[in-house]
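> tool_call: predict_assembly(chains=two)
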Amino acid sequence: MNKESTRKFNLEDIEAILEGSLQQVSPRPEFVRKLRQRLIDFSRPTVDVPKINSFQYVLLALAGIAGGALFLVTGTRAVLSLLGALGVVHYLRKQQDEQKHFSTSGPIYPA
Amino acid sequence: MSELSDEAALALAAQGDKKAFGVLYERYVNRIYNYIYYRTGNQYDAEDLTARVFFRAMRHIENYTDRGLPLSAWLYRIAHNLVANWHRDKSRRPELPLEEILLVRPNGDHPESVLLQSEEREKLLKIIGYLPDNRQQLLILKFVHHLPNAEIGQIMGRTEGAVKSLYHRTLLSLRDEYEKLEKQGGSNDGEIK
């Protein structure tokens, strides 16, 4: 065991070593300068919303109403068509069932 | 412009005055860089994270409300969070690469004199690398930035008494680990609590 390994340290020794070890470092001047420039040049992303005049507002509203009405009419027609189609299918099935019933029941009056 | 107080520069910067922000930047860039450098241990990450700190500060400077805390506390808090994320991303314990820390000296020591740096310093830096985050932060603020306990408390969100207590415990654990390392002959792989 060497002499150093048996050495005892007090807190002042540790503080002295820390004082000597943790020293200020300087960032590269080029880095500092470039970062400053980037910060100065940096601008927050903004969204430019164009101003809309009243005529455009009215036009936009009319277009909205017309679009909504068209959507409603189309939707209603679609629903009615669907219901109608379902009704036709139901009617055809009913007819088919009736035809089957008459063809399998045989003659009413025996020969 | 450079004679502006922090508060005045902050108020102007919050209104979008970039020159005022530039003044604050000049004032704090070295401190923030040093803090990050000693927490990450390398120049490249220190530069990258320092840049992020100031960009984040600039984006949120409008929201910074003066709660009696110095601006430095806010900047250190941003730096601390970014360093914590950096360590999380790296998924490893913070380590201080001694070679770089010893080789990069502000006063530009000659390489030969760097080689003659005391063995004690190297060992201690190695131990510091294994300290928990808050203790590393305390040592950097105290020894690199020479801040008083009251300001360290503001930055770390602790009372002055709590800082003193943490500092004392840190010194004790450093001393114990240091002596242990000396007995073992220089290897320490464990985490210090």
